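Can anyone check this?
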Amino acid sequence: MTTYSLRLECEATDADDQTIRSDVDAVADAFFDDEDVFDQDLAVDIASKTLTFSLNVDASSEVHALEAGIGAVRSALHAAGGGTPGWEDHYRMLRQEIEADSRGSVHA
């Protein structure tokens, strides 16, 4: 297993500032409770309507790491009501970055 660091950025395309503010707590709670990933962080920029999810995951390949990372982000967005039909219309993936951690997979 290799530890991968991921940074996934989403845009809340149709949301107004108040909707983003009200969603953030539910999104963060679900994201930080996900046990399949670790060292999570969430940054929100209300002005640009972006949510940036940073996380680490142990996986056998970049593909599996990206699947786990996107799964954690989708679950967090679903927790904020993004699980209704058409949720993809509300949150659009802007950027995906992944990097193998050269220090190995040591985490608490």
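Reply from J.R.: I decoded it. The beta strands are 2-12, 38-45, 50-59, 91-100.
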